[in-house]
Amino acid sequence: MMTRTQAKLSTFTSHNSSQLTNRIMSPMRSRSVTIVIPCMDEEGNLERLFEYIDLAFKQLGYTLPVLVINDGSTDNTLNILNKLCQRYDFLSVISHPQNRGVAEVWNTALNHVKTDWILWGQADLESDPRVDIPALIDAWKPGVDAIAGWRQGRGDGKSGASSIANRACCWAFGLKIHDMNWTKLVRRDIVSRLPVTLITHRFLLAVLAGQGYNVIETPTPWFPRFSGVSKFGRKRLLTSARDFLRVLGWFYVAQPMNAVFYYMSAFIEAAQVGFSAASHNFQVNTSPDYIAAYKEKSFRDSPLRTSSSVANIAYYRRLALAKVAA
Q1: Which residue among 101, 135, 158, 323 has its CA within the 20 to 30 Å range from the CA of 229?
Q2: Position 276 in a domain
Q3: What is the pLDDT of residues 149-193, one digit of tens each?
């Protein structure tokens, strides 16, 4: 469904993405990874969850910071998390006073995490940190911007709906993975540029793929929930369909229009820089000090240190182009 203009924008984004990715070290080498876990009413899972995370760190040979965002739990979740913070030095907790939803959990994470990578986990133990954390980190290779966990042996009765959603995103955004809404390892900087509240967590990887970022996947096992009940029911099908249409409109209409306005503003600003450069160059070349320096053939103290108007204009032209590129 991607238009020619959208494809060109994606190619441009992908080119810049590959250059930036090359400057970001692998998560295994840099260890610049924060594990973010959303949590609401998961009191029965937390003890075992952090036993598994601790074992995963022992397998890796190092620890990573873990940020749990308590999204308005009404059970004993917060008290348990406070006790776990005393046991595990790598754990920190942020609590929302009331439930705000997964998109706001992402926003809270982006406001506090400073590492290059975010590893998005689960608190329900349907994913096993002992497997998923090493698997996602090991799956990284040069040029990769995000890695999704692909649930194997899934038995929660939702695979049909997820398959439809993934196919729709493959058609609309060029997504090439099977499971976009599970555990994931993603570059923090590219997520921080997105309007997460509008996109929602469901379509995060799809939008990144549509923008030309390299999104891959790695198989991870699925397990039945250890304790508690799922927070997502059949009503999510309707909200997902509504959100999909909203994201589609933003991606194909609002985003390109914003890009056009941005480049128009950049060119206008560059033109202003060019006009200022020409005006400044004229004033310099007609100033008494410059004329005196010219007569004495000494330009060491002239403002631009050159007698060539062409060179001065070239200098400001490079400055204007740099402004546009920025």
Answers
A1: 135
A2: yes
A3: 999 998 777 777 788 888 898 899 999 999 998 999 999 999 999
Q: 93 exposed, middle or buried (CB, 10 Å; 0-12, 13-18, 19+)?
A: middle
In the prediction, which pLDDT does 230 show? 73
**What's the full length of the chain, in residues?**
326
Residues 6+ positions from 67 with CB-CB distance below 8 Å = 34, 35, 36, 37, 92, 93, 94, 109, 112, 113
Instruction: Identify whether residues 225 and 81 lie together within a single domain.
Output: yes
Least confident of 85-89, 244-248, 280-284: 280-284
User: Which has the closest alpha carbon to 215: 8, 10, 4, 9?
Assistant: 10
pLDDT at 13: 46
Query: Do residues 115 and 171 share a domain?
Result: yes
Q: Tell me if 142 sits within 8 A of 209, measured CB to CB.
A: no
Structural domain boundaries, residue 73: 4-232
Tokens of 172: 């609309």
Instruction: Look up residue 38 and give its two tokens.
Output: 């959303």
Instruction: Indicate whether 79 and 132 sit together in one domain.
Output: yes
Q: Domain count of the chain?
A: 2
Cα-Cα-Cα-Cα torsion 114, 100, 70, 135, nearest 10 degrees, comes to -60
Answer for the pair 189, 123: CB distance below 8 angstroms, yes or no: no
Across the range 288-302, mean pLDDT stands at 55
204-221: per-residue pLDDT in tens? 999 999 999 999 999 999
Q: Within the chain, how many helices (H) and strands (E) appear?
A: 14, 7
Closest by Cα among 243, 312, 241 to 282: 312
- In this structure, the answer to whether residues 143 and 34 fall within a common structural domain is yes
Residue 255 lies in a domain: no
Same domain, 99 and 197: yes
- Tell me, yes or no, whether 53 and 172 share the same domain: yes
Radius of gyration of the chain measured on its C-alpha atoms: 26
With a cut of 60, say whether residue 273 has pLDDT above it. Answer: yes
Q: For 254-264, write each residue's pLDDT tens digit.
A: 777 776 766 77
